[in-house]
User: Fold these one by one.
Assistant:
Number 1:
Amino acid sequence: MKARRNKQTTCDLKFLIAAMFSLPLMLPAAAADWQPAAGPLKTRWAKDVSPEHALPEYPRPQMVRKDWQNLNGLWDLKLGDGTEAKILVPFAVESALSGVMKHVDRLTYRRSFEIPKAWSGQQVILHFGAVDWEAKVTLNGKELGVHRGGYDAFSYDITGALKNDGVQEIAVEVFDPTDLGGQARGKQKLKPGSIMYTPTTGIWQTVWLEPVVPTHIESLRIVPDVDQGCVRIKVAAVAGKDDGNLLASVEVYDGPTKIGSANGPASDELVVKIPNVKLWSPETPFLYDLKVTASGQRLSPQADSVTSYFGMRKIALGKDDKGVTRMMFNGKPVFQVGPLDQGFWPDGIYTAPTDEALRFDITETKRLGFNTTRKHVKVEPDRWYYWCDKLGLLVWQDMPCANSYTDKHQPLDNPQFKSELVNMVTSHWNHPAIIMWVVFNENQGQHDTEELVAAVKGLDPSRLVNNASGNDDKNCGDVIDKHSYPGPDSPKPEANRAAVLGEFGGLGLPVDGHTWSKKTWGYQGTKSIDDLTSGYEKLLAKAWELNVQAGLSAVIYTQLTDVETECNGLLTYDRELNKVLAERAAAANTGKGTKP
């Protein structure tokens, strides 16, 4: 059967409330069979995780349907070494919250479920948020397909493989070579240390089912056009038997008030004028609500509807009043100040323990006065981007690298890298928070840079593209990006590229009782919270000086949290302690702190 890719689309929180509570979870084993492993460090949210409560929230906030069933919970697991266990999905096998905390490169997951009788007559779609790295999926002994890509969402129409009634059996066979392969893997390494961390193998995002009518929406493409005061929407839909050409309609809401609509062939771009546009920004992250419907030409009573959302904002290059090339946000030069956010968790590794934990990182980033974050060589679950959209945080989204720390004789899978790069862009391009795609980090796995930058620009001309953050700039894309530790420093703005500092800082401070191990390191050590805060204020004061005097458009500080042995974070790895005095850090980040 042909795999269907989620090209996710966009729904304000009120549309999620009904969908948050899915149909009752059917567990393949008793809850008493599971307990978290004793890992090196845990977060306060670990206590809220259980087989009955394993990321129960609706996983796709940008394209919401009312009916769905969550398949997170206990699954049977057979490891490549022959041992068997129970694993809590969606936590990777290496994580404490999985209950296993062991690495193997081959796994087989199994569980059973039943299809609700209310779904009779509909097609059923099986969704995976992400499985690292290769996943062969079978249902009732019938192979659905093989997916490769550790950060991609993917799905299958399982209708033809379902039994008429009763228990259905799903199996997922996983292979993940980590750094012995040439695939994109970010900071994962079999022997972690320094700036490389514990790998993630297997299912690490939500697995779920949803029913759809034969004619249904597959994805949306939503592009805000601030200059023309409108939103442009393309609806990708599947036609049921005898439904002919498809029709689509869209309705835009400002709160409860419908403010515009459009309809036409589903293959056309639908344009809705937005009166008195309310711009989305970190200060005022206003989101419009959206209802989208698709049907056959005869307006079948089985029309499919989804709810979504979007923000009206514009990111572009432009000249300031001195003729310097700047990153312009909503037509104005805005100094972007953010942390490097690697998205690792001591108890969940790649997976946050709960949705509240996921939200916490964004609220804390905002509390520290940042308006931006750089999601570093990792792609997050949709709900992380939803919270950035909802709370107002600009995002630089990195493509996970096929890391340059791989054995030099190990060939990189460049075609697979391009495929995953395209999937990353097309499955996240409706989030207003994302303003820049970062194709490479430094020279880690860098190849065909000019071609890949052009490909991303062709896919998404509404955003900026960073060809390589740090080393090995190839003189293409929208920014010239330098790394400087501790820095800060600034490259020189160019006629057609803005100057940004993609990494700097790295002030280290281990805190007893809140470290992954006794052995820790930082780029530049500090003695105390006050010492780190003072050092941070000096760095940020210099950064703001470079903004004015050298034309620097953005700075990214290393980093938001400690990660394993690396203690360069503003927060401890368990998120229990802030290692800077928050009010002083916020003043420094907004240019109101002490001068250098």
Number 2:
Amino acid sequence: MERKQTALATIVAAALALAPTAALAADYHHVHITAPSPAMGVDWYSEYMGCEPVADRDDAATCGGVELVFVPQPTSGGSLGTGINHIGFSFPDLDARMAEFEAVGVRGAGVRLQRFEDGSTVRDIPGLFKIAFIFDPWGTRIELVEDIERLGFHHVHLSATDPEATLAWYRDVLGGEPATLRDRVDGVEFGDILFLVSAHPEGPPPAATQGRAIDHLAFVVPDLDAEAPRLREQGVSFQEEPAVPANARTAAQRAFISGPDNVRIAMVETGFAGVGNELAAAIRGSDALGPYDVPRTSWGEPDLQGIWTGNPSHGIPLERPEGVDADELTPEEAIARREGGTLGSIWGYDREWRDITLSYGHAAVSTQVAMIVDPPDGRLPARTPYGQELYERVLGNYESRPYAGPENVRPAARCLTRGAPGMMMPTVYNNDLQIVQGPGFVAITKEMIHETRVIPTAPRERLGQDLDLWLGDPQGRWEGDTLVVETTNFDDRVSSIGRPVWASSSDALTLTERFRRIGPMTMEYEFTIDDPKIWTRPWTAMFRFDRDDAQYELVEYACHEGNYAMTGILAGGRAVEAAAAAER
């Protein structure tokens, strides 16, 4: 009898070993979306997708119970082409919603629409519903559907080399329930969250989601230590073992596993509330740095040489905004402001373009409230009557449509110049400049429009008053460790600052600039505009450059060679005139 019982136990053990391991009782937790400013991510999805901010969080929004978490991190592109192709939302009237999005446009933190082959933005799928596609400002592809049975957050859409096997994995490993969408599209459900899968195009497999716009999906289990062995038994590979993450808001653990088709998946325990963002690490305040001994050249002058970038100062407004009384912005405010400036400048570009413009994830962000430091209120002084009249006249000339000729297009768009100190001002890209020195001279080359200023530092005879130059006639001198450059003889056809203050210069302008190293990697730049024909008093602004010879390299800015916009602008103008003439 004992021998028979032993044999029976062996058979039962073998049968249990061959039986499939039960799936986890996992539930959906969140979608992780990469956004440089979590606050702007929350605002965008609240405004356009009907989501709501999560209480006591500044980095998450809930969309009908579905949580989206926004995290700033380096990224290599959008969600399209990865194992998580897009997420979906449903609206009761898709045509009306898309018309609203098209009216908003993509400028700033707007909406980028994806058009179908015939140019339409909405397509009716017989037997299913109407669909459309848009992108958020950070490269997340979003499918909009008109499914009144599932309004709000609608689905997560995966891209797979073997859709059937992928659905089976989410069902058998994570415990998803089989589901169909209107009896036409197979999927799985986790609670009320629908997961759909499409066949990935032939060729390479889907790109990894890690480091893309949708970095990962997250699922929750009660006890991660108890569930981890079951995952391993089913052949699941762990990218990160269970642990409480650094800066976690609770004591709940998190692990990362590899799902099918290069999808990164976070497994979290009940109570997991995300990880606090260390935004302060990317912040640079406007306070003065400590004492610094400026290095000298071999001939004894302060050494300013190197490649410097104005990226950290991008987003600082020239004037103090109305209603802002603080001396410094908070890290959240500073990052949101910089991101708003980026989106407002490169609207319509794919994610891959915007990431390289400001060294996303690498450059510090300034908390400086405004560039103007004098007048003390941080605002431009009043214009003279002549200055106001010139401002309105030139602004009207540049903004009139259609353009009669190139002379109506501002000099920067014509690839002529951004003026001085306009060429120094940080914008969305090409904020780098290189300084080289020799005895008696300093040369400054700006990557944008590849302008170079050669500044003599030894006394010399100035140009006559009848000779005007785009960048004026500079004369430099050293005051201690500070390079002071006084420039006159400006051509008054170019604004000294650029678009924010059109026509802000005259032939009476004197520009005084100060360059001073205040740290091994930091240069303070200050300029004073003294133009009595335009302004009722002089005014002064200041911002900073960072040195980075290792990462940055000035490249050719072939502005004239690539300025196809001029041909298009003038051809468009002639077409408008021809159409108007035909109607008469």
Number 3:
Amino acid sequence: MLDETLQRLFGYADFRPGQRPVVEAVMAGRSAAAIFPTGSGKSLCYQLPALHLPHLTLVISPLLALMQDQLAFLERHGIGAASIDSGQSREEAAAVMTGVERGEIRILMISVERLKNERFRAFIRRVPISLMVVDEAHCISEWGHNFRPDYLKLPDYQREFAIPQALLLTATATPRVIADMRERFSIAAQDVTTTGFYRGNLDLSVAPVPTASRPHALATWLRQRRGDMAPSPTIVYVTLQQTAERLAAYLNKAGIGATAYHAGLGAEQREAIQRDFMAGHNDCIVATIAFGMGIDKADIRAVVHYDLPKSIENYSQEIGRAGRDGNPSHCLMLAGRDTLGVLETFVYGDTPEHHGIRRVLDELQAGGARWELTLNALSLHANIRPLPLKTLLVQLELRGIIRPRHAYFADYRFKLLCDPEGLVTRFQGERQAFVQAILDASNKARTWYDLDFPRLEALGQERGLDTTRGRVITALDYFVDKGWLELQSRQLTEVYEVLTPDIDPGALSDELHGDFRAKEAAEIDRLHAMLGLFESESCLSRRLAGWFGDDRAPERCGHCSACRGQPARLPQGAERAPLTARRPDEWLDPFHQCLAHHGDGHPPTPDLLARFLCGITTPLFTRIKARQLTGFGALEGYPYREVREWVANHAA
């Protein structure tokens, strides 16, 4: 049965390595995990079973690009699949939901954040689901390289929606991360399939070049590789957006067509660049790490790291985009230690300050038994970036202090597409009174009505009506489906039940801050472990596979710079003027004044001052427009720890 579908719909004569045991585990009703390198066919492990399972397959992915690429593949093969995402209109999303309810759509793809949407949750409760698929499943582990706090809630969602089994997919998971994944989803050891991380067709070279000489070295290498041959698709990875722009301009002047790609470009421009690259119209992309996720292009012949990657896992994932067709491809590392400070700065910038954690705990206690928060407002109040703030909230969940109940949009507004009387008279009896109450509790501007939920609740009590929030939202969605009104929702509010209100905020702040500092140290250690890999005298392919617990790679691959007798020593980068000869006041005085007037009581701690001088963006800095002050980023590129210590010594 499975083999027949594989050949008839997908056009494959046989399974690729590792696919069969995963598919058979899913078809036998067991949860499973597939740990396959990038481009090794993880997606088929859910696409094929989805056609035979009785109900919907729900795919959760962290990236819209991953969804769109897979959807296009499924559409080409005539398989009913769709996504729901924020870029769709209400009509488009409603059409997808109708297709799911009718059974026409077998695979539905969403982001993890969609599961916090109360309207979507109400919909998905009505739909029987056979399988939950977690793409990029390493994100569920705090020991993974792209930890996403919302992923920790997926096991609870599986239970809440009564989904009988889960399939976890990832290309980069260390043994510790795999153990974490197994434990959270109760996956048996025999149902974890790994196919190995060794790629015999990838030539790995570490040939570090000093910063000033790197553009010329890259251009020379690209010319030598191409010669008189037809252009070959190449991705050059950099850390910063401005580096992408400058390097692409340099390569173009050197006669090598190149295009910059980064998050600072508009969505349409990024999509056009990606389309051109996929179609072969664009041969060389100079990109930040955002580029390449989900790209199914088999003939990428070279991946170059102009700057250091963020981790060994990122390096493995990025070089894994080369040579998916099995033909020889080259992976070159040009970077030295000169960008290490930038990577370390990213790590330090995500560590919440002690007093910021205390502010969150004070807000929690002030909220009583039901704590309602909007993430952006709390992020600004505590001066904690959204991602580490989500991590903090999850840590409070794991300690049994809070429990998420639901999330809702605080503000709903609607525009009637028929006259009010016509809407009301479509119903009779209690339903007619209910619809009239919705209109009476809404404040009308020129064309839009703002729904006042407290007022509606009061009207419901006065008139003896059921005006519970769930019923109101279901009714509004029904009106939208009928074409009677247009609906907008804003201000996502998360609701938590406070299980332990009598916490000691001082002691808990110490504990949580210690945890974040420990995670910070672990991330810095990961960076230095990566440097150790690149400077290794033993086989790079072997060491890279070993990082992921794979001992099947040969002792000597014969196609890496170490095996060729060229072990690397990463240059330190240009020396910087010592800080000891200067005083921080020359850069910090304007910031101190701004903080005193507009800083909402945030103290000028050594960490806050160091982040200002190193150019690390924080929610507070964005609000007070710190980037416009002359000292912002004055010490960008200096080691963060050195700047923090220097500031602290002068403050003592």
